[in-house]
Amino acid sequence: MEQKQKNTLWTRDFTIITLGSMVSLLGSTLSGFAMSLMVLDRTDSTPLFALYTILYMLPSALAPMVAGPFLDRFSRKKTIYTLDFLTSGLFLIMTLVVMSGYFSYLFFAAMNILLGAIGGIYSVAYQSFYPLTITEGNFQRAYAVDSTLETLSAVMVPVSTFVYKTFGIVPLFMANCLTYLLAAIMETQLKTPEKYTKEAREGPKGLERFTRDFREGMSYLFAEKGLLAIAVYFFFSSITGGVTGVVTLPYFRSAFENGEYVYMLVWGMGTVARVIGGIIHYRLKIPAKYKYGITLVVYVLTALFEGIYLYLPVPAMMALCFASGILGMTSYNIRISATQRYVPDDRKGRFNGAFGTLNTVGSIIGEAAAGVMSLFLAERPMVTAVEAMVLVAALVIIGGNKKEISRVYSVEE
Q: Are residues 111 and 229 in the same domain?
């Protein structure tokens, strides 16, 4: 009986954290896109819309780095449900404000800053607590579940658009208030012990403690050459993602009649593929000794596929996006399950905070670079250029640090 329990993925706490994450993730996706549409409709200003987006991105980039040291000392599960209760309250306030007929750009910009900061802290707390609920030998399966649910949340974007256009923003705000409240209530029932907090309470207090923890976290990252190489590669990958995220939809709109629908069709194949990939990784365990080689091949092929697909007919685009989706799920699952298994529990907050900040900053740099490059470069050459950059990064950073990265990826579950 004891052995059976040890090998069971769907323990009580894993089920609770998975369901809570799913509920809040669906609600966030449902209302987040609609909030952007509302601001654009009310202001009818592209610069104000862009500023609104930046005001969310900046705190979500900075908060993880600041939150990481604290979340290595204090309860992550309490942080998770406290932030969900707080988010539910913010959406209740926004519901009442919109129902009153009042609209203020400054008010919703301030709400966006708060939601960005909360989202940044929550992501670190969740990513650092989630591994504690996974039983031995089940890391790959657990992250297959997590990534599949995250992918499925993308289907809420068209649902959000339909509800917003048909009924307005109020039902979406109310739904988000309820979903976050439900998630928080479920998360209060988490029982997984956080042993790292006992030792973490010792030592200096206040700013001195934060400074020491932050410095130790950075020292740990730089001392672990494999983790550092992975983080730096994903910084470049995030820059590429920022650029392609900005220019891809405009390309489809200019190149095809009803380009929005062609875009949804092409990238929808990638979403389908990621779901299928998640199911595959839930059932098929990759031996640790093959993970590094598979990862390097995946990074190279993904860069090649995404660098050329815009030059191809639509059916070929769909095929390459499907292939990229399968490959992307493979690389994500290997990377996240290996790093979360490798990093000690008392350093997960700082590592995940630093990693999250690098990714978000990379995305912001990419989005800004896309705006500059669009002045003298068309969309397709721009995408090819940044994919060539990330291809070089894969060969130099991942390929050039085989020994160190293999040590991270070879940790047995």
A: no
Dihedral in degrees, nearest 10, Cα atoms 263, 265, 269, 271: 70
Burial class (CB in 10 A: 0-12, 13-18, 19+), 16: buried
Please give the residue range of the domain that contains residue 22. Answer: 1-186
Residue 164 region by backbone torsions, left for phi larger than 0, else alpha for psi between -120 and 50, else beta: alpha
Residues contacting 396, CB < 8 A, separation 6+? none
Number of folded domains that form the chain: 2
Phi and psi, residue 287, nearest 5°: -60, 140
**pLDDT one-digit tens code per residue, 84-139:** 999 999 999 999 999 998 889 999 999 999 998 998 899 999 999 999 999 988 99
**What is the model's pTM?**
0.85
Q: Are 288 and 412 in contact (CB under 8 A)?
A: yes
CATH number of the domain that residue 356 is part of: 1.20.1250.20
Place 387 in a pLDDT band, splitting at 50, 70 and 90.
very high
- What's the CA gap between 25 and 155, in Å, rounded? 12
Classify burial at 23, counting beta carbons within 10 Å of its beta carbon; exposed 0-12, middle 13-18, buried 19 or more.
Answer: buried
Q: Which two tokens mark 119?
A: 């989202």
